[in-house]
Amino acid sequence: MPPRPRRRTRLGTVSVAACLALLSPAAAQAVTRPGPHPHDTLQRQVEELVRAPGGPPGVIAVLRDGRGSRVVRAGVADLDTGRRPEPHDHIRIASAAKAFSGAAALSLVDRRRLRLDDTLRERLPGLPRAWGSVTLRQLLNHTSGLPDYSEAPEFVNTLIANPRHRFDSRRLLDYVADQPLRFPPGTRYQYSNSDNIAVALMTEAATGVPYERLLAELVYRPLGLHRTSLPQGYRMPAPYLHGYAVSPPAPPEDVSELIGMSGVWASGGIVSTPADMTRFVRGYAGGRLYGRGVVREQRRWVPGAASEPAGPGRNDAGLGIFRYTTRCGVVLGHTGNTAGYTQLIAATPDGRRSLTFSVTTQINARMKPDLLRRLRAVQENFVCALLRHNTP
Question: What's the mean pLDDT in 166-179?
Answer without folding.
Answer: 98
